[in-house]
Amino acid sequence: MSSSNYYKLPLIDGLEALDAVNYNTPFPFHFHPTYNISLVYEGVFETKLSDKSVSAVKGTILVTNPHEIHANPCVKADARSFFTFYLTADFFEYANNLKNLQFKEKAIHDDVIFAELHKVSLKIKSGYAGNSYEKQLTDALKMMAITHGTIADEHGHEKITAMFDNYLDETHFEKFSLQDAADQLGLDKFKFLRLFKFQTGLTPNNYLILKKIEKSKIMLADGANLLGVAIDLGFYDTAHFCKHFKKFTGTSPIAYQSSV
Length: 260
Known about the structure:
CATH class of the largest domain: Mainly Beta
Strand order of the largest sheet: 1-2-9-4-7-11
Strand content: 15-25%
Helix content: 40-55%
Shape: globular
Number of domains: 2
């Protein structure tokens, strides 16, 4: 039987985590503003990137970097169990002085680090009230970063993506127009589409949906109701919002809100 639990914890710059058991729902192409660090307990956790596919087997750590476009295909017969930590770039920068950290190795085989992260996951799942595991998690991730990470070029984001981000930051979601976006950036609409897909791996529409989901997390954490969130972010109704939220996060908006 498939199950999932979402955790949002008041430590390590707002640590979030997902515990999934016998999970057999695929994740479409998407990205996160965080590092996703998943402990694979059962099955094979697949990740499809723009240039390759990665298979993380039981006992390995599956990693994606912030804003890295990826999908997690899965068929119902191939359920997997995993525990994912979602960590901000600020955590690595300020806690361990590691700026622009990137993990090129996506499926990491390291029994020591896996064991340390597993100990932390058990405390989170048990509802352990203390915060002594914050240092334990910090130390394990520092070891992982130093052993398996690299420092990326800080100018790695392409200009078109940054420009589109700036445009969205100033635009109401329900009023977004592809033609207006192309005009503001001084591009033909079809050239804008090609360039954006080439640079980000997503269509503007899917990119916009992901932006809405990230915004909805903030609203849910502030206590907003589902209908209000759905209307404010331009979804048809609560069912439409809930469908997209679970599709990209692995949990429902209600479960996410109750975890805060």
